[in-house]
Write a structure and sequence with these properties.
The protein is an alpha+beta fold. Helix content is about 25%, strand content about 25%.
């Protein structure tokens, strides 16, 4: 069933009342505002990866957390390594599947994504991803989930049951490796497919398999922001 998404502008004083009204609706349309007004986007969500959703055509980056990249593995103690990136994506999909997701906007990042504090049927999914050990508290940008991370670490939940490389370090390492072979150090591959213009960062699961063919309109990018500006979107984790 197709859904209709709409933009709603809310003054700060009226936001709480409007949010309560949204909770009574089955699947409201997207609600986005700018400036000093409060913002909320709501609807069914498609999971892009362990910390990114898509709602009504809007990419929403879960604020305050950083999940393992899709191609990332973690140590599991005596269990050996496990695919923590895929597990994080699956966990977020389980939390949001078939539910209405409401995301209060904290603005946009440099890639144009909405930065969201999100709930699924009233449940704080940003917090749940950290509590369950499927994401780090991204303290570089927010300390809201720092206590939850400490609790998850103590419980040896998810990423904390063994050795795990924080995703920001994983991305830095993958970028450094790819940069040595990419033209002029521009390590992002812009790929043109039947599904549209898609870019692959060095931490994408399919990065090594993608070939850049300029004759097809494909190209290299020096940053994700540059790729987005050129009309390319990031590859989905699944």
């Amino acid at each position: 069933m197709s859904e209709v998404f709409r933009v709603v502008r809310l003054k700060p004083v009226a936001f709480a009342l409007a949010a309560a009204a949204l909770l009574q609706a089955p699947y409201p349309g997207a609600a986005l505002t700018t400036g000093n007004e409060a913002s909320v986007i709501s609807g069914r969500a498609t999971v892009v990866d362990g910390d990114t959703l898509e709602i009504g055509g809007e990419r929403v980056r879960l604020e305050g957390i950083d999940a393992p990249e899709a191609d990332q593995t973690c140590g599991g103690g005596w269990l050996g390594t496990w695919k923590c990136g895929r597990a994080a994506t699956a966990a977020l999909r389980w939390m949001t599947g078939g539910r209405r997701v409401d995301c209060e906007s904290a603005g946009r990042d440099k890639y144009g994504r909405v930065l969201g504090w999100c709930t699924a049927d009233g449940r704080d999914i940003n917090a749940e991803m950290v509590r369950s050990g499927h994401a780090w508290a991204f303290v570089k940008y927010s300390t809201r989930y720092q206590v939850l991370e400490a609790e998850a670490r103590k419980a040896k939940a998810g990423i904390w049951k063994g050795e795990a490389e924080p995703p920001w370090l994983f991305r830095e390492r993958r970028w450094a490796d790819a940069e040595t072979e990419a033209p002029k150090g521009c390590a992002i591959k812009g790929n043109v497919t039947a599904n549209g213009h898609i870019y692959h960062a060095p931490w994408s699961p399919w990065y090594a398999k993608v070939r850049v063919e300029p004759s097809k309109g494909e190209r290299w990018f020096c940053s994700e922001a540059e790729a987005v500006k050129a009309g390319f979107r990031p590859a989905m984790a699944h």
